[in-house]
Amino acid sequence: MISASRFQRDLELTCLVDTNCTELNIQSPELNRPGMQFCGFYEHFAWERPQLIGIVEMAYLQQQEPARRVEILKQYFHYAMPCIIICRNLPPPPELLTLAATAKIPVFQTAMLTSRFTALLIHYLTRELAPHETRHGVLLDVYGVGVLLSGKSGVGKSEAALELIKRGHMLVADDVVDICRVADNRLIGTCPESIRHLMEIRGIGLIDIQAMFGVSAVTNTKTIDLVLELEAWDENKFYDRVGLADETTEILGVPIVRQMMPVRPGRNLAIIIEVAARNLSLKRMGYHPARELNQRVFHNDRPYREEINTIDP
What we know:
Layout: E1 2-3, H1 4-10, E2 14-17, E3 23-24, H2 35-38, E4 51-53, H3 55-63, H4 66-76, E5 84-86, H5 94-103, E6 107-109, H6 114-129, E7 132-142, E8 145-151, H7 157-166, E9 170-183, E10 186-190, E11 198-201, E12 205-208, H8 209-213, E13 221-223, E14 226-232, E15 247-251, E16 254-263, H9 269-284, H10 289-298
Parallel strand pairs: 4-5, 5-6, 8-14, 14-16
Antiparallel strand pairs: 1-3, 2-6, 7-8, 7-9, 9-10, 10-13, 11-12, 15-16
């Protein structure tokens, strides 16, 4: 289900038939062009999808005699379609609007070309209908890498993010991160509109990052590439010193690289996060420094060994 008002606003549509419905029953990011249905072929009719009428379908309707047009449209409106969208600002025949109002099917209109609006609508529905999840954390764009800072409240996520913003990086969301899976291996993070560009700093309160640092300090969406989990330093806990094995965590079924980052006074978290982002970019380009060290120590003809993690550099 998709909010009808948000659907109209986001796609900049004009409403021709308002049925006062609050939600559109759209379950798939696909659409249907009803040319074959206007010709009388209803086998495999995808009536559950948004119906897109372009210049071909409209020209066919306009060429019909009024009685024949009513007959075609009566059969068409027998199905409970979620909505109809007319492209190119084409003027619809009055019979279409009358029958749509009777069947309580919303009719929208757009000035965009049919092919361009098709691509826009599919992309929009893919985002809206993708699996969603909300997580506590801070999402930033650091050197083009989407970094999600997670950890318990008060560990220092917002303070580290604020330092990164001062260093020229961009904030996506603070405290609440909306995550959606737009592909089998791709996650997009954004911020709820009500708190967008706002950050909470203990002792100060809420600050507006865009107003304080400018539009270049914020961005609305970002892919999630790296999860850094901040935790208070535990002297009795073993922390990976080399990083030969890459850990991952699953978000909405997508594996994301995860690193544990111990926090204690004196550590410059901002520069460590920057290095973590750059290091991930290097790994994606095929250069893995820990494996390079492993080859140097154990020679090129020997396989990687986990024991390298015990070496005290």
